[in-house]
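note to self: dont lose this again. the chain is below, predicted strucutre after it. 471 aa total, dont forget to put it in the shared folder this time
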Amino acid sequence: MPTKQELADWLDERQERFTAISDAIWARPEVALGEEAACALQAETLAAEGFAITRDVGGLPTAFVAEWGAGRPIIGLLGEYDALPGLSQRSQPTQDPIVAEGPGHGCGHNLLGTAGLAAALALQAWLRETGRPGTVRYYGCPAEETIVGKVFMARDGAFDDLDAALTWHPWWFNSASKGSFLAVDNLKFRFRGQTAHAAAQPEQGRSALDAVELMNVGANFLREHMPEKARIHYVITNGGGAPNVVPDEAEVWYFVRAPERGQVEALTARVRKIAEGAALMTETAVEEHYQCGAYNVLPNRALADLALAAMGELGPIAFTDAEQDYAQRIADGYPAGTREAGIRSLDLPLDFLERALDGAVHPALDEGKVQPGSTDVADVSWITPTVQVMTTCWPMGIPGHSWGIVATGAMSIGHKGMLYAAQTLALTAADLFSDPAHLARARAEFAAATGGRPYRSPLPAGAAPPAPARR
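---
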């Protein structure tokens, strides 16, 4: 397998094996930090092929690193496998959960992790046959949906010696990212007051729920005084047990986002003051439980150009008329205007909606932009040059974290996007192993962008991983 084409062919010939792994993870969706079966399946698959496995990375039972080879460069492939609560869905183009309120792979992470694993195995075979020096590493990363896994892994130095990191994400079209994502803080505030009979002795009560609601009011007034692209989201996770009992415990869960890590930290400081003020107003006590935080993504254009060149060599994904029809039926299942709103939100041309599935290769359409979401890939991007590829795995314009994504994750549309991603990652990594100039350009760009500022974990000293998300 001396040529890159043969590397791509190697993956194509073994696609049924990788499809079976992905479908097994899809059929048993596990939410953040609870991905025992997915983690075991991937780790055991790589161990059987001779990869050395390190488990419990970052203090996370469902995180592992698989390594093969010797010497430099050391190229990392980042994988994920967590599902989302409440997104159970059958593999069909109409909405219908398998289990009511059950979890589902509404972000395609069953595909995401499996493509990274497949690329790692392909690179192992390629390095063996070519006799080139180098180390390939696959990172099994849990809990991306709660912005946790890679941050704890990074804190413990899991990525420190990488020469570059490659990853991907299922998406509407094929491209490589040159843009950024929002930095984020993920934290909970628990208020404690004094219970009382709400009718007979209300004056004896100190309502923790009142404190939560006053905090939310304060946060909503803060919105006028935030950077333009900053976001604050919250959900009340505990509001008391009954309306005739003054709640002595209540909790609210916040995400604070902004384009840069420093902006998030400044906003979070203000949110903390609002929580303290709410406690003061209600004569309650407040405890903060910091779940995690993540940086904004630091793009690497040199790596993105290399990945785009690999896509150019592969050509577009060919979707059949039956697949186009399946995707169109999914798209038609969303309210009118949903897809248009998704396209407009990213400043993409509306002619992207002409077909339900777009298999073409597009240039980086996000250069200079900050996407509205967040990802723990960002922390890796501040440690080593990192690129994130996107490939077509679901209908154009449908919203993330929704049923239509689950509906394509265990059939040919998702399978084709996954294989294409594995091939793109493998070809890109092969270029890095083959030609030191590619890696030199990526690392020079990284050094200039970081300006000598070392990565500093956003986690407080001694922070422990949060409990697994609800199932």
